[in-house]
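hi!! sorry for the late reply, been swamped w classes. u asked for the two structures so here they r. pasted raw, havent cleaned anything up. first the sequence of the first protein and right below it the tokens
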Amino acid sequence: MFADETTILTQDSSLDLAIQNLQISLNEITTWFQKWKLNLNPTKSEVKIFTLKRYNNPKDIHINNQVIQ
């Protein structure tokens, strides 16, 4: 497995909870990558939000304190 082939999916009826769960998962994966001397590059990562509801300015997702676009 290569880091550029990794996908994380979260879902919830609440967009805020889905984003919170995604951030928790990213934090855990980042810790695992660091333990095994691997890096996640925030500039090569991206977030996609799919929802049927309108949303404005969802919370930012971070890897190593850098915002993912």
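now the second protein. again sequence first, tokens right under
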Amino acid sequence: MRKRKIRRKLLDKIDQTLQTYCHDCLLYQHFKNEKGRPYAHQFCIHSCTVGDQLQAYGRQLNE
């Protein structure tokens, strides 16, 4: 039961982070328009600090 609560909290943190920072991200929109969606997506995954935070949450979910 404890593991479920931790998982739920992590999923809530992920959702909140996506809604707060990623929903209207100006950098993503700029890169998407200038260099295409794949480049913008890769930027978010590899270079954005919010992407790093989301990856850390994902690693915690996989533990």
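hope this helps!! also noticed smth abt the second:
The chain is about 85% helix and 0% strand.
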